[in-house]
Each structure stands twice: as C-alpha cells, then as structure tokens.
Amino acid sequence: GAVVSQHPSWVICKSGTSVKIECRSLDFQATTMFWYRQFPKQSLMLMATSNEGSKATYEQGVEKDKFLINHASLTLSTLTVTSAHPEDSSFYICSAIRDTSEKLFFGSGTQLSVL
Amino acid sequence: QKEVEQDPGPLSVPEGAIVSLNCTYSNSAFQYFMWYRQYSRKGPELLMYTYSSGNKEDGRFTAQVDKSSKYISLFIRDSQPSDSATYLCAMSEGLTGGGNKLTFGTGTQLKVEL
User: Fold this and answer.
1) Nearest-10 Cα torsion for A28, A33, A35, A36
2) pLDDT tens sequence across B78-103
3) pLDDT tens digits, one per residue of B17-63
4) Cross-chain CB nearest to B96 (options A4, A42, A102)
5) Which residues of B are less than 8 Å from A91 in CB distance?
6) Residue A3 Cα, gap to closest chain B Cα (Å)
7) Which of B109, B110, B106, B101 is closest to B4 using CA atoms?
8) Beta-carbon-side half-sphere exposure of residue A56 (alpha carbons within 13 Å)
9) Which residues of B touch A95 (CB under 8 A)?
C-alpha cells in the first residue's frame, strides 16, 4: 500500500509557541491531503482539505488563521498550529489520496501537548 | 443523531473467536464503505473497502454492507491478540478523490485475550 510519513510523532511545546507538522507521501503523488484531529476515545474529525497549489478548505468551526496549511508540492503538506494553547493538545493525523483513487492512506499521527 | 453510529466497546474476546463489529448510518447517499484499524497513538490503517451493498472477503476479514438497513459489519475470523486495536468504520457519498469527505464512526476498541 501507499506510504504516508508524518513528522514529528510527538511534540511538546509551551503555550504561545507555534508548531509545524509535516505530512509526506513517499511513493506517490498526492493531489489531495486531509488533516484530521482526534481526541481520546473519539473519532477522527476532519479539519481541512488541502490541494496542491491552492488554498486549503477548512471545515466549519476550524480557525484557518490558527491552523495554517500549506500544500506546496504533490508530496508535502504542512500544518502549523500558531500560538498554541493547552486546548490545542490533541492527536493530529494527515492523510493522502493518490490521484482520484477512493482510498485514503494515513500518516502515523502527531501527538501535540501544549503546556 | 450522529451520521455514523458505532459502539465504542471495549469488546473483549478470547483468542480464536469470531469477532463482529458493526456500524449504522443515517445518510442514504453513502456508497463507499471502509474499515480502518488503529493501534494506540498511530494513524488508521485501511483494512477493507467496499462499494455499495454486498460482501467482500480478504483473508480472515469479511466486510458486509446492507444499504437497505444502513448497516455495515466487519467480521474477523480466528482472532489473534495482534488484532487488538480500535476499529473505525468510515463512509462517503462518492470518491474521496473527487472531493467527497469521509465520515468516521467513533471506533470500537477490541481486545483479544490469550
């Protein structure tokens, strides 16, 4: 299957700082990437859809100025949590699809802890 | 009412048992149905993918879709301790590559005991 790499897997930061999470498709070109957030024992909640070379589409209730998404190439999308606060602590997961395939492949996730 | 309902468990079974995991949904427009396995603090891994109604088998895993009842199932035969994980159902109205979103269930935590 397709490989999606996500980095870092863990990050601890102070309140008010910014954190960048990278998502890479290693063996295919991902025209579309998705960013999800998952709280303990809850489902994945879609935050935004990222298309290469265009602005991300954010879901209702997700602050686009707080969660900056950049999809600069067909293999890389980044999520930057700006001015992080403790309530932003969560598990963030990216996913990617190959061309118009219906199958979604996920990264390994990033656990963000904001102190 | 959530669009996709899934019993969170936990579900505990002895090794070798047949496991049945289920989801119900309310959106009759869903056509693509998936099951993902997620180990603790890892990203979900695609297990099974089905389109419309019917059965699909892959090794020890069988996925069933009953669109008339808006009910999907995942069966695991000869369950192993390594199957212990959270199983998420997911579904969409169309191809995710075509801009359709996946809607996930909350996941069922499964524990297979020796």
Assistant:
1) -70
2) 999 999 999 999 999 887 666 678 89
3) 999 999 999 999 999 999 999 998 889 999 999 988 889 999 999 99
4) A102
5) 41
6) 11
7) B106
8) 26
9) 43
